[in-house]
Design brief:
Layout (H helix, E strand, L loop, with lengths): L1 H33 L12 E8 L5 E10 L4 E12 L10 E9 L2 H4 L5 E12 L2 E13 L4 E8 L3 E7 L1
Antiparallel strand pairs: 1-2, 1-8, 2-3, 3-4, 4-5, 5-6, 6-7, 7-8
């Protein structure tokens, strides 16, 4: 009976492993097939949603931001950071930072490839009961027309995934 359960468990693991390999192959082919169409910044009307991990700044947690292109260089957006630990001033009331953001996208002025965008920006909003301010230098790289990665480095930065709409 025990040997039957071990063999049955082994077969389930083998089946799951094979399914995961096929899924990874299909996803890889999809992303590789789309890389020729990747564009990190489209200018006016461009929309980006980013979700990531906040590892430094006002605390450690998760972040979500939205940016809308007002012109070839300028974007306006909003975001929220939800902190799990490392709160500003060790005050648990500072566990949420809700903010507006302004970004300046340098892809065109710097002549960067379409897959890349470099953008300095600022965030201003409410951190618990206080005002919060953040300044960052951001970098985006898009694998295809819809999905990319980003990093924002500054006094309140994050790393994560960026989505193009």
């Amino acid at each position: 009976m025990v040997s039957f359960l071990i063999i049955q468990n082994y077969n389930i693991k083998t089946i799951n492993y094979n399914i995961m390999k096929k899924l990874l192959l299909v996803c890889s082919m999809f992303f590789l097939g789309q890389t020729a169409f990747a564009q990190a910044w489209n200018g006016k009307g461009d929309q980006k949603l980013q979700v990531g991990f906040n590892g430094w700044g006002y605390g450690n947690g998760i972040t979500a931001t939205y940016d809308y292109g007002l012109g070839n260089i300028v974007s306006l957006g909003a975001g929220a950071n939800f902190y799990f630990d490392g709160y500003k001033d060790d005050n648990e009331d500072n566990n949420v930072f809700v903010f507006g953001r302004l970004g300046f996208h340098l892809q065109e002025p710097l002549g960067l490839p379409e897959k890349w965008d470099i953008y300095p920006g600022v965030n201003l909003g409410l951190l618990g009961k206080d005002f919060g301010f953040g300044a960052h230098l951001g970098v985006r790289y898009f694998f295809n027309n819809n999905v990319g990665i980003y990093g924002e480095f500054g006094n309140n930065g994050s790393l994560g995934v960026s989505f193009n709409f």
